[in-house]
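The data are quoted verbatim here:
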Amino acid sequence: MLWTEKERRDNMSNDEHGICAGTLFLSFLAGTAVGAGLALLYAPKTGKELREKISDLTDNAVCKIKNCATEAQEKIKSTIECSKEVMKEKKSILTSAIEAGKEAMEREKDKYRDKEA
């Protein structure tokens, strides 16, 4: 499928503005796995030392993943709260506009009635 230049820019823009949380998480996991594998290949250690090292690496990875997940949740919550505020503001503006329109319509109706009388 061929993309137009605008579609390509839009997709790149989306990636740069926060849609990459899953990508970041998967990249982190892949980097952790590769790093652990390389450490296993190049580390001349006994089985016990190696198991301890793997355990430490796993614990560190789990801790980092939990931190990333917590940060992502916080960002999502703040985005939702910000969106709620924007929606309240837009609703208020729209309500005011509707009321102003109703008042203007009533004034015009009154002018029309006065002309007929």
